[in-house]
Amino acid sequence: MPSRRERLFAALDRIGADAFVATQRPNQLYLLDHPDPSIVISRPNCNFILFTAKETIVFPGIWISNACRDLLPNGEVVTNQPGDPPAGVQLAARLKKMPLKKIAFDRLGPDLADLLNRETSGLQAVQDDIATEIRRTKDERDLKGMREAARVSDLGMLAAFRAIRPGVTNGDLAAEGAAAMLRAGAEHVIMHVMTGPGTFYLDSGEDARRTIQAGEMVFIDMGIAVHGYIGDQTRAGIVGEGTPQQRDLLRTVQNAYRLASQAMKPEASTTAIYQSVIDLYAQKGWAAYFCHHVSHGLGLGGDPPRIARDAPDDRLRAGDALSCEPGVYVPGLGGARVENMIYVSESGPEELTKCPLEPPMGF
Amino acid sequence: MPSRRERLFAALDRIGADAFVATQRPNQLYLLDHPDPSIVISRPNCNFILFTAKETIVFPGIWISNACRDLLPNGEVVTNQPGDPPAGVQLAARLKKMPLKKIAFDRLGPDLADLLNRETSGLQAVQDDIATEIRRTKDERDLKGMREAARVSDLGMLAAFRAIRPGVTNGDLAAEGAAAMLRAGAEHVIMHVMTGPGTFYLDSGEDARRTIQAGEMVFIDMGIAVHGYIGDQTRAGIVGEGTPQQRDLLRTVQNAYRLASQAMKPEASTTAIYQSVIDLYAQKGWAAYFCHHVSHGLGLGGDPPRIARDAPDDRLRAGDALSCEPGVYVPGLGGARVENMIYVSESGPEELTKCPLEPPMGF
Q1: B361 within some domain
Q2: ipTM score here?
Q3: Which of residues 142-161 of B touch A (CB under 8 A)?
């Protein structure tokens, strides 16, 4: 595969542009020539990185200016102190001196577009997020980053499940899972734990102080970052034997996961995958209770593809990476979700997350 | 102090409005009549809550619809399933049936304003975030919530500092701190650990995998939520004795903190407080290296007041709660910050966070 830089400039060529400005952290991390850009731009506070055929110029926000100056010794850094002109003015001043014709931004708001129009006559600035499209097809570095994020995510899920027993709180489980992942190298960790006797409230109705009772269902999701790469998985289980209805719910969700994930091959239709999950739940009368996406893209953030009710039809491609996370939330019964990180290779789906679908509990 | 509801309707009276729509989670948590709204609306995914003299009507997003239906049995909840009309359309349909004249929104975008204009003739909709202004002056419930968030924050900072010794990683400290706070009841925890031999990179240049060496400075910030209330503090220290320059840096920042926090009394000028910090650092030639705010408001989120270079002058009031966090980041030497949560009582500033300015390290 050509290098990231080669792919960027090939895409610029196709739209007749000679420079790219990355304003979004995932694009900045992807394109910056540094062994671990996630420790330089460790938060989304770098205003612009300008890539031309000859130069890379970094325009950090004030809060990141010291880090960029010290940690990027080989590139040009337009440092920033209190009282300096606004970022857009700094960018325009630099662009004025450069013989550029057309420049693509991943995001270009009306204020910055107006400013550039006024200040840099002859330069055409357009919004065209070619970098996010390039990021869709994963390279070796991506795959290494995603595998590491998946490994850390497995450690967290296993640690949280191991702590499940009646009498502990949701927060106790999150503490075990978060600590395991932070120790293993995650720079950012959110672990969501939901438990309850009946309906779970997907991404809502979470009470960290709630004490877990025997017979309840437990539901753990997370969002982590490791060297900038997203780690993400969800598991559901029953505290004890559970009722036949609870076991059936878990089994059904696991079946939906297997059905959808096994279909994640090159050329697969994303709407067909979505519909297969709906059809499976419809057999139980639960179609209306599957209320979210099947997949979001994985990588550095905001990557395509997305599989959801409101997403356009798309074909999966070799090199895609995406979540597979059918869930269902049945009033009066309960909710469950299974989520893994999937890499679409030429030969089919590979599960990057390796944690068992029902991780062992610690009692 | 009058009740939250009484204060809301008094403010509506002043602008001639008869209803309020809260779209922002902090306002929703503040105004919803529930013993712990943070476990119902546990993420910012509730579209609208409409408050009129007679009714409270909740319009949850799809993801929170089950939770609102089950956990808010006494209010009206307009539940949401896949395929239902967009939130704005649901709101307009409900408003049409109500005899309202003027309605204030905390946020009202142009699309929703246009929709309401078309669909609800005779109803005037305006953006006026009266709720955030009401939230500025803390009531007993706020004070209880902030004290608990501060207590949990102290536990986390003490746990992280106790784990500091050469050979552990930044992530190890974050793991100890995060786990302590999650076990103590925080529903959301981010702990930022920065270490280095020289300049620190405030909110950037963070490497979770970095191993701490003797003689380095360490710098820990956090952002947590407990029952929706923000907990926040920062501490800086030296791993070992440190150099005279490092000790001077720490002492200077602690002096800046004491100077600013002791000035946080009713009627104090916010620009005077900001300037006093600049003047203190200027004595060292460091004025340009204090690059951020002195204070942001505390409470449920987005509360005034703010003390910063770009914030307008304001007078502190009894009942304000705000951070006090002067820091300085000196090229070639290092960076440090001290931050506490301050409550401005009639008799002066009260530190809600109680952790020592230099917490004991565990070696």
Answers
A1: no
A2: 0.95
A3: none
